Every structure is written in C-alpha cells, then in structure tokens.
C-alpha cells in the first residue's frame, strides 16, 4: 500500500490554536477556501465550524496528520475533548479577544470555543462573542471565501448581501482592572484547563451548567455592585430565563458573573460554600433541597460534592424527614441513588425496637411513649440514604401498624434535641458500613413464636432454684412461661411486643405492666440460664452470631443527646432503693436524676434476690425428688432389683424412700418393661430369631411349641425389632417354602412364592392330553375360563408361552417350552412332590384312551354358525369378514372420495378379478355400496379408433353408513391388516402395485 500524498504547501499549527483556525491558515497558504481545502483533504462535511473541534473522529485526525506531514497525535491538541459538558452554550459560536487576534495574525485559540472561557487574562478584557457591526457570531457557520479576505474578518453575509467584512481586531473591548473578580474566576477556570487530568474540569463545568438557570434567577443586581458598570449592564442586557430564552447563548459578561458567584460554591471550603448557597437561597426561599430555579434534571446532574454542599445549606429549610433521608445535618449529606439497596440491606440489621442503650441516650425525658419511641426510632433508621420519598412505603416493611405521625415525632424531638437526628444518621451509616453483628431479619424468619417450651422452662427454673409458675392452661392471667417466651423472643429478634400482629403481643396495658413487672423478678442465675437457652436455640438454627449487640457509643461522640449512657447509673444505689427500701422504679428514677426507662434497664443488670423454697408440695420439691430418682434408679439398678431379684416396684420405692409414682415414672424413663400381672414365659431371643427368620416358621407354630399364645410371640418379635411378615397367605409355609435346586427351573418358578402352583401344573399336564380346553374342563370338572386364567398365570410365572391355542377343529399343542415342562412333570420325583402338595380331592388321574377318543370326536364336530349380531347404530346389514374383504374395504376407504370400478380395484389391491366381483356384490347386497353403469359419453370416448367401445364399466362407492361400517370392521380387525394377500405385498394397504394395468 503506497503512502498518502503530502500537501506541498503546509503551515505548522501555533500553540493553543484550534483546528478550524489552522485549516483556514492552511487554505490561505494554498489559495483555497476552507470548504475547498476540506474537500481536497477528504474531511467530512460539517454545517457549523464548531464541529471541526468537537466532532472529528480520531482516524480522521490521523489521516490529516499524514497528509500534512505532522507527527502522530499532534492534532489532538487542536480539538476539544468530545465528552466536555457544553451546557447552556447551545449555539455553535466562538468568543475572541481582538488584541489576541491581532497579535496572532488572525489565528483563533482553541480555548475560545469553551463555554466558560469569557475573559482574556493576558489583556484583562472581556471576550467578544458577536461581531460589533452585524451582531452575529462570526464563526458560527463554516467560512466561505475566506482566502479572498484578510484574516480575522467577519465573513457573515448580511441579508443575502455581501459579507460583513468587519475587522474583528479593531472591536472595542471591555477592560477589566487588575484583580477584578471576573479575572480571578477566569484564572480559576484556566487553572482547571491547564491540568493534565481534566476530570475535575469536567465536573466543575457540569456543575456550572446545572447551576446556570438557578443563578440567573437568584442573582440580584445589588450583588454585582463591585463588578463595574459595564459588567452589570452586560448582565442586565441578558433576558431572564424562560421557555423562550432558555436556548439563547449567554454573553461573556453573564458567564463571567455566574462563574464568579458559583466559584465559592464549587471551589471554596465547605463553610464558604454553605454560606454562599444559603445567601442565594434567601433570594427565593423554598423547603425543597434543590433551590428554586433548578429543575429536577439539573439537580440530578450535580456532582456528589456539590450535592453535599447544597443539602447542608438547605438543612434548616427542609422537612425533618427529608433532613434525615438526605442526612443534610451531617458532613456526609448526599442524594441517594434511585436504585440504592442500602435501606433494604439495612433492614436486616435493624431490630423492631431500638436497642436499650440507645433508647436511654436518644429518648426525651418526657412527652413521648417509650414503646412508640423505640419502634419509631427503628423505623427512622431506615430513612437515611433512602430514595423513596414516601416514608410509609419504607417503614411499613418494619412496622406496618405505626401511625403516620413519624414526621411530627421527629420534628418534636429534633426541635428540643437537634443532635438526635445526627445520631440517627450516624447509626444508619454504621450499620451500612459494618452490616451489624446480628441479622435480625433472619432471626425474625427463623426463631419460633415460642422459643422455649413449658417443660424446658420448668427445668430451667428448677435448676436455678426458682418457681416456673402455672402452665398456660391452668392460669387465669398471663403465666410466667408466656412472659419468659416474650423476653426470649425480644432478646433474640428485637421484636416489638406492641405490634398487634405479633403472636406474643401484649393484649392490654395491664398485660404490658405485668411483663415489665416480670423482668425485675428474674434472678441473675435465671437470666443467665435463659441466655444460655437462647444461644443453644441459635446454634440449632445454624446462626453463628452474638446473642445481643448494639452500635458502639462512639456513634454519639461530640453530640448533645437527651439521655446519659446506659452504664452511667449507680447500680448499688438503685438496688438499695428498689430492693432494700421497697420503693418504686419511678421514685428511684426521680432520686437518681434519670428516666424510668434507664432505671428499668438497670434493674435487669442487678437481678432479683433468689428465694429459698421449703414446701414439700411445691413443683420445685417434686423436681428435686425426680433428680434424686434419676441418680439412684438407673437401668442397672432396675435390672438387678426388679428383673433378676423379682422385687415389686412398691418394695423398691420403700427401700429408696421415694414415692411409688416417681419410681414408676423413672422405670418408664429407662425403658424398663413393667408387668402388672404375672411375669411372661421366658423366650430365648436367638432361638426365636432362628425359628422365625431362618426357618421361616409361623408365629402360630412357634407359640404351639413353647406353650403360649400366637400374639405373645408376635409382641416379643416386635420388641426385638424383628419385622413381622404380613398376616395371612404371605406367612404360610407353602408361600415361604423353597424347592430343592435339583427341581427344574420352570417347576420352581410356577410353585415358589405362590398359592396353588402345583394344582395349576397338575391341570396343565392333564389338559395337554385333550384336543382343547373345552374338553379338558369337562374332564377336570371346572370352568373353561378358570383353566384359561390358570394357564395364563403359569405362562406369566415361567415367562414363556407354554401351548398353542386351539382354532376350530385344530387341537391345541404344547410349545417347546411347554413340552419341556410336561417332561419334567412326568418325572417320579416331581410327581411325588405334586402328590404331597395336593389334597386327594384335587388330584385327578390321567385320562384313559376312551376319554381321549370321545374328546377328540367332540372337538371335530363343528356347530353351525349362528346369525351375525347386527351393528349398533349403523343401518347396514352385517356380513362375515374375510381377509379379502378387509383388503377391499381398506382400499375403498382410501379412495372414499371417488368412484372405483373392478379392474381399478384389482390393480390397486392385487386381488383376483373374480374375488373383487364377488366381494363387491356382497357389499352391494348388504347396503354398503352403491353401483352405477358407465354413462354413454364416457363409454364411447374411451373406445379405440378402430374398435368398438367394449364393455361398460360399473362404478362403486361406499354409502355413508357403509363407510361407518367399514371403519368399524377395520378398527376391530386392525391386527389382521398386517397380513395381506401375497399379490398385494408390493404396495402399502390401499396402495397401487408397481406394474398393474388400470381399466
């Protein structure tokens, strides 16, 4: 491939020059206009000049470098980043500095194309964006005829007339004094553009674009008094933003003012930015996080740092729920992503009621119910970073029963204690970052509504020396077991017992009071035992987590909260007030200067004093007796005293000084068999197993041998774990017996594991001597159907056909397998086994010659055929069907939509013509067919030229009823269709032979 030709006349691009300016200079060097040069260089056609610096592909630039003999990548400095945000610079115009144009001899800078370059820091003047004469953008459209005019000339045509021709280097400029605010803003923009990485410049430009519409409305003329008269007039000449002016380009003065005002917002410290935004928001107050004048799309385009500053500035104006959702009171304020899963993930790690320590810290001393606050606080923890603006849709996942007063409660709390909102945000952030140590959602799904049973509760109380209380069925009010279940369920899952949908919910205010009174009555040992039970329950559920957990106290560092830390309470003083002085928790809270909630949680850390229960009739005393019985009355003890020595349980109870009922209970617990009558007959276990399993003896035979009842043997087998054979025929000896391996296989297959096998073999041996089953059944004095069934069973058991069935006068005869079976049955050994197995009334002697002769004579006699049964619902006469009839019917059905004649049917089926004629006449007489002679026209038409017409054809077709009858017969005899006459073997049924004449 040859290298591309290089332009003979070339111009090197100047530093900072734009591609369109360089192409224009290149065209002047060759005496060509810019469009003509672009055609020669094969550059893509563009309508506006700006597309030369923003819309060319990299491969176009590389090719242009080769044509102009420039190093690869050199032209990248002459174009702008295509991803640069343009914002309100809707029109493709380019600014310019007249003095720079003059010094550069008409070469245009690339930076002038940028929307936020509005001043020349070299000459300290505002840039121009319009021609001073025609007031249009001089480089909006691609310049034509530029080689005919001096550089830096306005080439816009005025009303289809000549070009404007104004020398742009002579345009008057607005001079800015040194240190002017607009020059400082331009220095800030230039510094961003001079960096190697333009990511920050892109972010700043995008934020500038998003703030433009808002600032055009928010900036007042009084804010511009220090910028000079010319700048203020430039601001006032710009029309206010509206639907009609929203696409108009901004003048350099307006862009400079916007950049100056927004500079502290985007480039200053957080404090400076927040102060600047608040001053601007005061011009147009609003409760929305976004300032008035910034639409939804502009608000969404703001960068995360800008969002954070805007939200923090609007914190005091926003609704309390929005402040929490957007975390505007914290340095981490931000607008959540639309699809943010944070609150959904956080839900798994939030209990339904607030942790005790944080309840004490965040709850006000008065003005709000404790249960409502704890539930509401957990619901509020779901709001930070939540994109859903309707709080009920978020909190209903945790507390569907809560009322819609969430905003009122939060506003009331934050009015008195504003740091509570910051604490909630910190807690939510901690859960998002560390995911919490407990997955409460999994526990809510897995922990059963009754985490401890009454029996386990009793054992736990007895082990700790406390009373369990009454069971649920015996108590008139809520028993202690229910309170213990509530305590455990709340401990494990953080459940809200005030939720009416909860299975353990409080039924009334009095029920809640009883639960709160139950908690201080738990001793430390009892509480520790409950915690141990809870950990064991978590292990059984496969949950490897801590029993309880709370976010660390560091989340409240530096905050002024309503309450003190949970540990900041004098437990000794609390114990003395409540237990020694017997004063109420409310009085203790008043004396200790804290809340009753703080006191109640403190009492749980103290625990009640254990009591000594001395009554012999208490449940605790009964439990202690049972524990003593478990220690003494072991399985070895009962084996020695009860089984071997034969002592009664009453005697054993007296000897060990225990109640007889507890002794019986322990005997049942160790699996001892208690006899309430005489002791059973001893049976050796190994002997019983051998007789029943190995020798296959029935329980009745075994019982007869040892002198007991059949059911006694069966009970003993059940205790030994021996599977019993089904009662009835399956346990009979004839079923379980096995023949010797010397007996032929077919005989064993017919006899073993079945009833009456020998009887079937005996009858089969006799029946094969007769010509058919009818004569054999007469000799055996049984029904023919019974013989048929029995012989089918023989064939099933053996797995082979044993005899060919008789057909009319042809007698039945054994198959090879049947003949082999008859030879085996004729052996003396087999005959002896058969005679031993059959009863005398079942054995029949072999037939003599006279009986066989009489049977053969009877088999040869044929009974006259009876009349055929008429069709059911088919109005034709029924005829006897032969193989030829089936073939003919199949052919007629295959051509039911047309008439056929005899020779045609003969050719298709291969049947002889005489057979076809006879069968057609039979079907016609029975009403199955219709026939008609060939008409004269057809008859004469098919006659040869030199011969007469010959015989007429007779056409046949099935009647509707005949068609139904044919379908019925073919369906009933479908198996006979597989064996057609030999003449039709060359074609399918109803098909045409390969070489059969028609006609």
From TrEMBL:
Q: Which positions fall inside the TniQ domain?
A: 8-127
Q: Where is the composition biased (Low complexity)?
A: 847-856
The record's annotation in Pfam families points to:
TniQ
Concerning Gene3D superfamilies, the annotation shows: Winged helix-like DNA-binding domain superfamily/Winged helix DNA-binding domain
Annotated region (Disordered) at 841-864
Bilayer-spanning residue ranges: none
Please give the name of this protein.
TniQ protein
Species of origin: Streptomyces wuyuanensis
Print the organism lineage: Bacteria, Bacillati, Actinomycetota, Actinomycetes, Kitasatosporales
